[in-house]
Amino acid sequence: MNSSHFKLLQLFIALICGWFLFTSNSYASQISAPLSQSVSQSNQSLTPIKVQINWNHQYQFAGFYAAIKNGYYQQAGLDVSIRDWKPGVSVADEVVSGNADFGVGKGRMIVDYAQGKPLKLIMASFQFSPLVLLAHEPVNDLSEFSGKSVMYDGGFQIESLLSKANAEVSNSIKVLKATGNIQDFVDKEVDFYAAYGTNEPSRLKQKGVPFYILDPKTYGVQTYGDFLVTSKKMAELRPGLVKAFKDASIKGWQYAITHQEDTVDFIMQNYSVVKSRDDMLAEAKATTQYVKTGTVPIGSIHAAKLLASAATARELKMINQAELDNLNINDFIFDDSKSLFTPEELEYLKANPVIKLASDRNWAPLEFEDPKSGFSGISADYFKLFEKKLGVQFQPVYLDSWDNVLKEAKRGELDVFSCAVETPERSQYMRFTEPYLSFPMALASKDMISFADKYSQLEGYTIAVVKGYWTEELMATQYPGVKLLKVDGVNEGLSAVLDGRADGYLGNLAVINYTLHKYGLEGLRIVGQFSERFELAIGVQKDNPILFSVIQKTLKLISQEQRDEIFNRWVRFELVNKLNPKQLLQIFIPVFVIVLSLLLLLLVYAYQKRQQKAYINEIHELSFASEINVKTLKILWSSASFAKLSGYTQEEMVGMPYLNLSWKSLEDEQIHRIYKLLTSGHSWNGEMHAKTKAGGEYWVELTLTPNKNLFGKVTTVLATRTDITDKKRIELLSITDELTGLYNRRHYNEVIERELRRAKREHYSLSLAMLDIDFFKMVNDSYGHPFGDQVLKDIAKQLTLSFNRGNDFVFRVGGEEFIVISSFESESKFVEHLHCLLESVQGLQIENKKAPFKVITISIGGLYLEADKELTEEDILKYLDQELYLAKENGRNRLEMHSFSEE
């Protein structure tokens, strides 16, 4: 065979593979049962609904007004009225008491729920809160709240910010209840005024009133905005009504953000608005970014983000630890799926937390018992989705054979057939849902049967079938001329064909294909398919109509995408038809094959290039990617997702120095280490603390991957990220000392181990110090423990000011004992820095009259670990403790450094 013929053969084979891949995928999509949902329209009279808002009528509530304007609520059978807000109104109390059916409240709703108010969270109008404080003067430090007045109406963000400020002020903060009148701020009746960034700032600009914005997000306070809630009672008794209200409200928001002027005019014509049309239009423009954020669906809420808000509330003592521990976030969130069920059906699910399944332990990939994973297969994946939607457990019951499972189900001992064909016999005691899976009947043989597409062709042959399967009932009742070999399982049936006990095995195509590959049963092939199909459904005991209704409804909730995903996870058809030579000659004419294969190859190549580009773009968006110029360290391009995360536009990101995005300035030494690693062609991975354009903070897990040109030189770096902000917030609670805000002893044990490994890997020095407050017992004895606690906070603050670089760590490891981990380029510079720390602490002039220096001082034991010097964690603590002891013995208020040259 010459090379040209060989290439033609290659093209022919490529075409065959491509054709079968295409047809198998198409075929797979055909046999996965389609999902059809029907929506019934009610002709009942409209149900009156009252909605309590938490501020004056304005564009903040535009989605609800738009749903009224366009009749979305009326179409859902609801007559909605929006109740005016008045100072002092508690949205949570109005909803719980029944004065209002729904309420729009601030982020504090999670605190109300944690403290026991029976609320259900339906959606969040704003994906992040626009709530800010307006000030007459710029604020550089929270201590500037001392003695000032703040007017607000219970916003979680404001309460959190004030809780932080209370720890910093010398005079208490005056809190005033909001009146809803911006004139209070204009007339300087208050120092700080809670406002929405979408609203009051633009109004003040038009009035020419100077102001400054203090955003809680700058201080790490963040949550959703404008929670839509209802009472637990309403959600449980009328879930369908709640779901209908939610859907209509989301539809209203979709209209409002695309028809801003129409919505503004409707609000102004029908409600008492306290601002101008221009103000309303400005608010509308600003509001859109909070409601519609990228590809996140309007109204979305995620349990992790809510949990992070709850953790912040605990940190700020808005809730206690017990309330946080008992918090069930998933129970707080309204479950849409329950809206389809009647009160009787919901009561049934509560009373029956475990439902028994009649399952086949040896029918892979449809359902089987996996030694490690338990109930597995296509059917199992469906019932795992059912469990999530219904809150019950489906417990598979296995017996030694499917035939015995059938007998148990017939006696009523098992509630549900998880995956079965509806037959006349089974229909006597089971009621079946619509089929959710459909597979061809197929015949597997060795060489006794060449091809068959009619059952009559099997007469005279011995065909293996599983006892109790539909195939046994079908063949026994309709084709008595076929000899049946009844077996206990598919594997046994196929083995019977291999060892000659049977001429063929008749069964489900997907099961045959899966079993052949799993057990390596070589020598068997599919030699026939038949018009009958395995129409697989879920069967429920006939005397249990409530459960049947629940199962049927839940099955309809499974989307086509979910069905396809489950199907493709388990089923891979390689060849489903046996084609005879005549058919092959009719289909594959050599000249046609060559021409078509060339065209297909070109099309596939072009398609793959487009798909590759689209895939890469999608990956870049999912990973918050950007590219950095190695020489200038400036951003060359940014994904839309990373620009949004950072608060900039993509255009603003281009040309920006990448290091400007860091929360703290990175040390030159650290930058140099990473730069050296990247330019040598190695990747770098680590956590980074970053800041947004507005001054907020976020955390990412950052991966830097160098890109080389044709000459092998690194020219650019691809940066990809995972947003770990919520994770870091929750982690921070477990690694932070509650009194001082410093890291605790537990975190020290983690960090020292990590830093020692990194120092060894990246070959750099470590600088460590152990500090102790001198005569601290005298402080507590003379001035009391509250004063002692304040001393600890003051020292912690001074330590944070002294060690505030990106690679500095400060820990409180005991009562008045602290440890610092840092890095300095030389021991002399570290010593100089520690002496400055001694002076700065003494310079605080914190009174301690019974001590020798009459003021608070500290003693320090230091250790400078050169890059080539390796010590264990135990050795480090030994040296630090030894030097701290010497500092105390030699008079205190001094530093003692360990020198390895003396050893």
TrEMBL record:
<dbReference type="Pfam" id="PF00990">
    <property type="entry name" value="GGDEF"/>
</dbReference>
<dbReference type="Pfam" id="PF09084">
    <property type="entry name" value="NMT1"/>
</dbReference>
<dbReference type="Pfam" id="PF00497">
    <property type="entry name" value="SBP_bac_3"/>
</dbReference>
<protein>
    <submittedName>
        <fullName>Diguanylate cyclase</fullName>
        <ecNumber>2.7.7.65</ecNumber>
    </submittedName>
</protein>
<dbReference type="InterPro" id="IPR000014">
    <property type="entry name" value="PAS"/>
</dbReference>
<dbReference type="InterPro" id="IPR035965">
    <property type="entry name" value="PAS-like_dom_sf"/>
</dbReference>
<dbReference type="InterPro" id="IPR001638">
    <property type="entry name" value="Solute-binding_3/MltF_N"/>
</dbReference>
<keyword id="KW-0548">Nucleotidyltransferase</keyword>
<dbReference type="InterPro" id="IPR029787">
    <property type="entry name" value="Nucleotide_cyclase"/>
</dbReference>
<keyword id="KW-0808">Transferase</keyword>
<feature type="domain" description="PAC">
    <location>
        <begin position="684"/>
        <end position="736"/>
    </location>
</feature>
<dbReference type="InterPro" id="IPR000160">
    <property type="entry name" value="GGDEF_dom"/>
</dbReference>
<dbReference type="InterPro" id="IPR043128">
    <property type="entry name" value="Rev_trsase/Diguanyl_cyclase"/>
</dbReference>
<dbReference type="InterPro" id="IPR052163">
    <property type="entry name" value="DGC-Regulatory_Protein"/>
</dbReference>
<dbReference type="InterPro" id="IPR015168">
    <property type="entry name" value="SsuA/THI5"/>
</dbReference>
<keyword id="KW-0812">Transmembrane</keyword>
<dbReference type="GO" id="GO:0052621">
    <property type="term" value="F:diguanylate cyclase activity"/>
</dbReference>
<feature type="domain" description="GGDEF">
    <location>
        <begin position="764"/>
        <end position="900"/>
    </location>
</feature>
<dbReference type="InterPro" id="IPR000700">
    <property type="entry name" value="PAS-assoc_C"/>
</dbReference>
<keyword id="KW-0472">Membrane</keyword>
<feature type="domain" description="PAS">
    <location>
        <begin position="608"/>
        <end position="655"/>
    </location>
</feature>
<feature type="transmembrane region" description="Helical">
    <location>
        <begin position="587"/>
        <end position="607"/>
    </location>
</feature>
<keyword id="KW-1133">Transmembrane helix</keyword>
<dbReference type="InterPro" id="IPR001610">
    <property type="entry name" value="PAC"/>
</dbReference>
<dbReference type="Pfam" id="PF13426">
    <property type="entry name" value="PAS_9"/>
</dbReference>
